[in-house]
Amino acid sequence: MSSTRNPKTAKANKAQTSAKSKSRKSKTHVKPEAKSGPVEGVYAAANSEASSVSKPLSGLDAAAIVLREASGPLNAQDLIGLMLERGLWKTEGKTPAATIYAAMIREIRSKGSASRFRKADRGRFAAVG
């Protein structure tokens, strides 16, 4: 038995394929316009606006603050407890300790000696410096 193709299906598939390739090719990259004025002025304006509006701390920033003030290394669960107790960080996640633990490990691995954290013992972290 010979294979027969339905001509309508073949035309429809070809039309869909060509439409996809055309839409991909038609996208163009628009370069943003260069901002005039000194770069420092842009950052100064952004920082002054940010200071007037209280922006919540990230989990890593809050962890760094708590670890700097801690008397010794803390595990992630204790760290989360102190962060939430002090109101430095808010989360609705199911496993915030795992989230912070993973984020601190990523920072230590990516930044190396420039990291704000160091691993003091298995599962325990301390602030650098």
Written description of the protein model:
The structure is a single chain. By secondary structure, the protein is mostly helical. The protein has five helices and three strands. α3 crosses α4 and α4 packs across α5. The longest helix is centred in the first third of the chain and has 20 residues.
Q: Could you outline the blueprint of secondary structure elements for this entry?
A:
Layout lengths: L6 H20 L12 H14 L6 H11 L4 E2 H11 L9 H16 L5 E5 L2 E4 L2
Antiparallel strand pairs: 1-3, 2-3
Main attributes of the structure:
elongated
Strands of the largest sheet, in order across it? 1-3-2
Average pLDDT works out at 77
Judged by helices, strands and strand pairing, the structural class is mainly alpha
Portion of residues within helices = 55-70%
Strand % is: 5-15%
CATH class of the domain at 59-127: Mainly Alpha
Distance from first to last alpha carbon: 79 Å
* Rg (C-alpha, Å): 26 Å
Tally of individual helices:
5
List segments where confidence is low: pLDDT < 50 over at least 5 consecutive residues: 36-51
What CATH architecture label of the domain at 59-127 applies? Answer: Orthogonal Bundle
Q: State the total count of DSSP E strands.
A: 3
Helix and strand pattern? HHHEHHEE
Give a brief description.
With 129 residues, this protein is mainly alpha-helical.
